[in-house]
Amino acid sequence: MRYITGGIALGAALALGGLSASAAAGPAPEPAGARGYAPSELVLTIGYGEKAETASVQRAVTLGCSSGGVGSHPDAEAACAQLRSVGGAFDKVTKKPSDRPCTKEWNPVVVTAEGVWEGRRVSYEHTFANPCALNLGKGKVFAF
């Protein structure tokens, strides 16, 4: 087969039916989430302050759970497994009771999760009283 180069020659070849637009085009791209699972991609943050909008963000990671666990989270696989075990209910991670004591100081630390969990938009925020309370309630999800 001989290839024709140049805009005029290519236009002539198309007009004569030597090439068809459908033959030149590849398969249509697969829509997001069409691979048999709903997307689960999150950005997680930890910051000092009472509310996310005024907190000073100290750390942020990405967490992708659509295929095991990927992203910049240091233990993405365990974090994804924990979220799956609670059906994506972040409160069941952060508000899990603990019998270990913490001081009563008020030095608030806020955690956030923004993105998509199993195809649903997520915008989660929880404020811990202090870093000790964060360490008790962060689970695997906010352990970074």
Structural summary, described in words:
With 144 residues, this protein is of the alpha+beta class. 22% of the residues are buried. It is globular. It has helices at 7-15, 21-24, 76-85, 91-94, 131-137, and strands spanning 41-48, 56-64, 109-117, 120-128. The longest helix is centred in the middle third of the chain and has 10 residues, at 76-85. A four-stranded antiparallel beta sheet has the order 2-1-3-4. It contains five helices and four strands. A hairpin with a 2-residue loop joins β3 and β4.
Q: Name the helix and strand elements from N-terminus to C-terminus, one letter apiece.
A: HHEEHHEEH
Q: Tally the helices.
A: 5
Secondary structural class: alpha+beta
Which range does the strand content fall in? 15-25%
Widest sheet: strand order? 2-1-3-4
Number of E-state strands: 4
Coarse morphology: globular
Could you estimate the helical fraction of the residues in percent? 10-25%
* Radius of gyration using CA atoms only: 25 Å
Main beta sheet strand tally, sense and closure: 4 strands, antiparallel
- Report the end-to-end length measured between terminal Cα atoms: 58 Å
Average pLDDT for all residues: 82
Give the low-confidence spans: 1-24, 26-34
